[in-house]
Structures are given as structure tokens and as C-alpha cells.
Predict the 3D structure of the following.
Amino acid sequence: MRIVITGANRGIGLELVRQHSARGDRVLATCRRPAEARDLAGLAAGRPDLVEIRRLDVTDPGSVEAAAREASRLGAIDLLWSNAGVYPGSPGTSLAEGPIGTLRAEDGLSVMATNAIGPIIVAQAFVPLLRRGTHPKLAALSSGYGSVADNQGTPYWYGASKAAMNMLHRSLAFDPAARGITVLLLSPGWVKTDMGGPGATTPVGDSVAGLLKVVDAATPDQNGCFLDFRGRALPF
């Protein structure tokens, strides 16, 4: 399979690179700052025949288009993992999340740009390559916090950004421009990564193994579905 992964430098993205390359898939691993992605570089050095690293910042349309041009050398893409995202307050970001009375517009706009608008711009750039793929799929990494129905106090910016991402990709699922592509919205669970924090309950390897099983087994009649990493349907 020919795979593109955004946010591949750490956490779930890095584990996706590891597990895909271990099973022999060809991976274009992208991130904002490749020069700083030491763990990813180590994976690529170990499998230079399978893993290439390219710059892609989901908030920079020029870098998105450049990465899509690089991916065109593969001829087609069979699977796009739209994984890049930000959680306010997690290591590596100055963005803040808090209760009413502390919210700042600039934080909300930045979170929405990274978690909702950026991913659909990535999808738009890669749809032509996906349509040439074999049983192509687009897997957008969402969150249980993206469920409006289950919201009983979800973090404002993060929850809203993932709900918006769900809506945008649900629209894509039924857009004629994406005909033939199975679009999936996936919650990885509360994963033990820098973003998930020390209290997280799911090892990253288990989450990614589950996500891969869900994607591998997905059929076109699941187009637009919102699922967890065990394949269970989640409410919008």
C-alpha cells in the first residue's frame, strides 16, 4: 500500500509509520519540522526503501500542495492518515484551553486552523491521488470529544475543532469529487502520548493496531462513519 501520514513525527503518527513500514507498506511521512523529527528520522534510516520524510504543515497551504506534488511520484495514494493536530495545554504548544472567563480568541482560531481547516485542505490536495488508488481510504483522526451528542463539558476549543473536523469530512464523504474514496472519522481513544498526558489509559501501539484493523476492514458502506479504534460506532 502507498500511505501518506500527517503529523508523523511523534505519538500516533510516529506509531503509524512504525506499524505500516513493519508490514511492508510504502510511507510518505510528513510533519512541520522534519529537521527536528529525530525519532522519525531513525525509522526512515532503518527502512529507507519504505519510508520517506517530507515537510507538511497543515496550516500552510503552500506546504500542503508541495507535499501532494511529492506524493504524485508514487502515482497514487491508497490511504491518507489525516493525523496532525494540537491539544491546547499539551507539551510543545503555547495554546491555552480553559473555562468561560479565560478563553482567548487567538487560541480558538489557531486550534480550529490546525484541527479542522487544515485537515480538509490536506484532503482536498490529496483527493486526486486517492481517486487513483486501490480501494482508497481517508482516515481522519478525530476524538470522542468531537461528539456533540456526548458533550457534557468537553474542552471548548479542542471539542469544537474535532466536531468541525467531523462535519467537514462527513461532507467530503458525500462530495462527488471524492467518489470512490471511503472516508472514515476515527477516535483513537485516550492514548499514552505527549498529547494524551500521563493519565491516558491506552498504549499507543494498541491504539494504532486497532485503528489499522478498523481501516483494513472498512468497506464503502461505512463511508462517513465515526468509529472508535475498536470499530464501535460513535454518536455525532
Remarks:
- The chain has six helices and seven strands.
- Residues 105-131 form the longest helix (27 residues).
